[in-house]
Amino acid sequence: MSKTEKDHRDLFRETPVRYLGYANEVGESFRSQVHVNVVRFSYVVASGYVVADAVSKGIDASVKPCSNEDVRKSNIRRTVLDTLIWQGLASVAIPGFTINRICAFTLFILRRVSSMPEPAKKWTTTAVGLGCIPFIIKPIDKSVDYFMEKTYRKWYHEDAVMQDVVQDASDD
């Protein structure tokens, strides 16, 4: 990796910092094991990641050359909003809901059909939730990409500045 590639490395999408966006999925996986405030805190961590990424993308957009100050401000606003929506859906809302439902269904089934002790049912539910995280990420990212292309980005005619700044990690 060259020096210029390192200088342009996206801290929030190309480093281990991006795993903070998955904190709520981990929290949801442990929901049956921990106090609800621990799960809530995992959402605070994931949401903090989303906001930090949006601010970072806004800063990146602010240094891009523009024809005038109004265009620059508009690009910054649209970039930040695009990032907040994309990350909010792809990193917090949809995966959190998905893991929550997977874990709830798993625990429900185990309680109905298994004679395992309750702690084993809860740990099995946690393991299933954690195990599902790697499998749900790409489909959710691609679905949110599709949704954003058909809605927000179409409505606001995303231009080259935003396309250059707003990139998701789903192409990894």
UniProtKB/TrEMBL annotation:
InterPro entries: Mitochondrial_18_kDa_protein. Pfam families: MTP18. Belongs to the MTFP1 family. This is Mitochondrial fission process protein 1. It comes from Sinanodonta woodiana.
